[in-house]
Amino acid sequence: MSPPPDALLLAVPLAPLTAMLAGIAGRRRARLVAWWPVAGTALSVAALLWLGLAQPVAALGLRLGGAWFDAGALRLTLGLRLDALSWTVALLVAAVALAVNVFAAAFMREQSERAGFHAAMSGFAAAMLTLVLADSLVLLFAAWEWVGAASWLLIALRREPAAPAAAAKAFVMTRCGDLALLAGWLLLALLAGSTALDAVLGLAARGAPVDRWLPLPLLLIAVGALTKSAQLPFSAWLPDAMVAQAPVSALLHSATMVAAGAWLLLRLFPLYEAQPLVLALIFAVGLSGALLAALVACVQRDLKRVLAWSTISHLGQTLAALGAAVPFAAVFHLCTHAVFKSALFLAAGSVEHAAGSHRLDRLGELRRRLPLLAGLFAVSALALAEVPPLAGFYSGESVFAAVLQNRTAFAPLLPVLAFVSTFYIARAYYATFERWPGARGASSLEPPRAGELLPVLGLAVAAIVLGAWLAHSLPAVLGLSEPEPSDLGWRITRLAAVVAGICAAVFRVRAVGPAPARIGAAAAAAVVPVRGVERALDRVATGVPALVHHGARATQTIEAALDRAASLLARHALRLAALAHALDQGLDRLGRAATARGARAGVRVDAIERRGFAAGADRLATATARWARRAQRAQTGPLYAYTAALFVWLLGGVVLLWLIGAAAA
Amino acid sequence: MSAVPLTAYLLVGAALFAIGIYAVLAQRSAVMVLMGIELLLNATGLNAVAFWRHTAAHDYSGQIFTILIVTIGAVEMAIGLGLMLLLFRRRRTVQLDAWQALRG
User: Fold this and answer.
1) pLDDT value at position A637?
2) What value of ipTM does the predicted structure carry?
3) Contacting residues of B for A638, CB less than 8 Å apart
4) What is the pLDDT of residues A155-170, one digit of tens each?
5) Which of A643, A646, A650, A651 best tests the B interface by mutation, with the highest count of B CBs <10 A?
6) Mean of pLDDT values over A217-234
7) Which of A250, A31, A257, A227 is nearest to A123 (CA)?
8) Which of A321, A452, A639, B33 would be a feasible disulfide site paired with A399, CB 3.0-4.6 Å?
9) Cα atoms found within 13 Å of the Cα of residue A198, Cβ hemisphere only
């Protein structure tokens, strides 16, 4: 007897929520506290699989919920919706969350704040699943904010000096984007008359009177999504958020939370389809962000920061695919990116545990002592680098085909992006695991635990297998159209770019170690605003001495002219002096006469003032003081006197009003 | 239509209002003053209800206004009692004669 599909659908977000509450309630039981999130997310995965196996996924159309209340012309709804798109992404989120939570159970074993950490991870999983399954803009926004709050909490739980500032930066920056999102969805809901997704998506078919207003809310929502997905220029919070523990980076800041922005745009895609300008903007921001972020990743000295900028770059590619009006490619890339990026982050966490640092210049030569971890990292890195037949290859092909089909002019940028992506990830791998000149390697190595390696193994296997499998099954499941496949010439070009990137990175790291390449330094300086301002000031500083030099020469010329005038004056000085003396004496006589007259007038005015105004003012002042003292006696002190006075005033006022009314009638 | 004439209600209301004014003006204890204020408010409410019933019984705005008066009276009592508590903590007495700082 299978449980009713409504209950299964409710169980998907509620299971992690219950796990969070159980984790909070049972926080003293140290043994159990790490397994609550695992249980919660496992239940979610099971519920989703059950729902998906009971009927073909493409035909899924489960709705739960309804109207919450009506406020004038606006109907607020609450609900969950399960269709093929949300099933796919929810399953992805739940599966990655499960893997990361299993990793966290082993990773966080000695940390003191683990009870709160695990509870927060369950809470985050519940929030993210609610976000994906939401059928109502209200619920989606509430889940969006909850996800942001969970991110703040998880970053702030780290006992490190940089953590609170990084957590606040992440929260405040995404909150500012959320303001735009709020304005956008409120406008959409007002236009549609209801917050239900059906009503909102139906706006696309409404036609002329609504179409004029649609671009504004869609633009605002896009701004909110771009902030959450850490696209340039709103990306400053993501690299700083890497101060959090590895499971947090793997779950939130690579696979799921930052994908929420792309998810929102995917959900509302039927509305975006009809707005070519907004799509073009999303495409531009996504592709340019992808390229710049990839360049910046080449100069990072910290393994996790490389992966953070890589996340920004790949999300940029997802958004570029969306901006090229091929949502299939965006979903595909979202899925594969979640898998290989979380595998990379978890492996980086294992490396940090084993070697004690994740700075590239303190790592190196780890392959011999951590062979399994190195292999898993290498597999995930190759998946990121779009090497066939791994997952990244298929999704990268899909994104490239999408751009080639709809925005052909920008297609040549993608092989360049592939080269740079391969460069940074190969550099990261090589600097961490292979020998390079000056590599000190780690002195003491703690072997990684089985609990840490198992999820990474699972995710790496998924990264190998997922691409081909999704390429076959996803179009049918989602019902979205695939882009036309690119021709052989382009495929060879991209493959060549990948191979070139690997070779370039390997040769460079073998030669000079993980020192940042100049290729990325320019982009890094352009992207970091402070350094850009520094360079501008530098240019000003070099220009100023030249200006001063010109000014000095001009001053010299003026000085010479003044000199000549001065000598002329000196020659005629005596004549001028006599004239001046005569003038001076005349003025002196005038001045003395005026002073005498003025003194006499002053004496007269003073007498008038003393007798007239001063005495009168004195008398006025003393009279006022006397009357004031008399009036002061009315202030007797006790409250009833004042209350009585108040009532007398009121009575008088009432009588006055009555008289005026009687007179007017 | 009730058998009690409008004038009766108004007289009772006026009497309550007068008692209320006496309590506010002549009582020395802060608690008694607050009671007097309450009497004033409720006398007004009685007037409102009486006029509503006798002139426009179909229109519910009279009821709404009376409920408003009661609510505002309740809120005012809360604030008044809170102030009274704070004053009590200062001088350990609720006799209004203890506060004569306004004396000129």
Assistant:
1) 79
2) 0.78
3) 96-97, 100
4) 888 888 888 888 888 8
5) A643
6) 88
7) A257
8) A321
9) 16
